[in-house]
Specification:
There is one protein chain. By secondary structure, the protein is an alpha/beta fold. It is 34% helix and 17% strand. The protein is built from 8 helices and 10 strands. The strands form 2 sheets. It has an 8-stranded mixed beta sheet with strand order 1-9-7-8-5-2-3-4. Strands 6-10 form a two-stranded antiparallel ribbon.
Length: 308
């Protein structure tokens, strides 16, 4: 926990003194943890932490969030052929690695509810299926998820979970993805771009698009983003607004919802960044900075999985 982060409990909750002592203990070690990885950037220019292995004590974070009553919703879209190809492995691996000490509610958005595999869930874990309309183009599926996420947060998630993490289904958990990742607004640094010059970032360069960017801070990956339910709703609402504005202008952002996500985080800086160890591309030959794989891209078979 770093100085700009707030503890995940209300000031008047029972046991506040103990919680505050734990919070202050974590804060007191913040600078040390930042210096624990001199080989990689650990802070942004606006003082948000970039989380790498070696920067945090997992037991302290878990204890703080358990005592604070933190709960997490994990959303994932599994539509068309992606359900058969990836969903079972995604959910099974999440059960082994995602927010294990905390209550977790999985929300599976799919056009084929009857095909969602049965997964044996641990204590304080639940799975809910949200049926969605089938779209003919994968680009439309990718972009319209923002509207569906907003609706789900408003109608249900905000009543049950303090935090929300949104995932692509074509990935697999390999190691701890824990409470150290929780924060008000959490973005993921894209593995393919974290160690390259900014002029190689693939922002949308079309001035007619609402996602247009001439420059930025980082290139963020839409495969994972999260935060408090309110902040995540702000993100998806803004992205959906940009997507609909583009439709009115008969344009489509270069990387669809990811382009709009990057524009949002350029204008509204995230409070925490996750390093590429939280979503690694196994095709990258140099992994010297990656001490632990937390999530890894699954093999992509776009030629057979994408319907158009």
């Amino acid at each position: 926990m770093l100085l700009e982060e707030r503890p995940p409990w209300k000031a008047k909750s029972p046991g506040t003194f103990f919680f505050c002592c734990l919070f202050l203990l974590i804060v007191s070690f913040s600078s040390f943890y930042l210096r624990a990885r001199p080989d990689v950037p650990t802070r942004t220019s606006w003082n948000a932490p970039i989380i790498w292995e070696g920067m945090f004590d997992p037991k302290l974070y878990d204890q703080m969030h358990i005592q604070g009553g933190s709960s997490v919703a994990l959303t994932v879209f599994a539509v068309g052929r992606y359900l058969d190809a990836y969903l079972k492995n995604f959910l099974n691996s999440a059960e082994h690695h995602f927010m294990l000490p905390l209550p977790v509610a999985y929300y599976v958005f799919t056009d084929a509810p009857e095909k969602v595999p049965h997964i044996k869930l641990g204590p304080q874990r639940s799975l809910r299926i949200v049926q969605v309309e089938k779209h003919s183009r994968w680009q439309d599926i990718s972009m319209m998820r923002m509207k569906m996420l907003s609706d789900a947060i408003e109608l249900e998630i905000r009543h049950h979970s303090k935090y929300v993490f949104c995932f692509d289904v074509d990935q697999e958990f390999k190691g701890r993805f824990g409470s150290e990742a929780l924060g008000e607004s959490v973005a993921l640094v894209h593995a393919d771009f974290y160690n390259v010059p900014k002029n190689m970032y693939t922002y949308d360069k079309n001035p007619k698009s609402a996602a247009f960017m001439e420059t930025g801070d980082y290139y963020y990956h839409a495969a994972i983003f999260g935060g408090s339910w309110k902040k995540v709703k702000d993100v998806v609402d803004a992205c959906y607004l940009g997507i609909m504005q583009d439709k009115l202008n008969n344009v489509e952002a270069l990387w669809h919802d990811e382009s709009h996500l990057n524009k949002y985080y350029w204008l509204h800086k995230p409070s925490k960044l996750l390093s590429p160890e939280y979503c690694w591309d196994p095709n990258i030959p140099n992994k010297k900075d990656i001490r632990i794989l937390r999530v890894e891209w699954a093999p992509k078979h776009y030629d057979t999985l994408r319907e158009s």
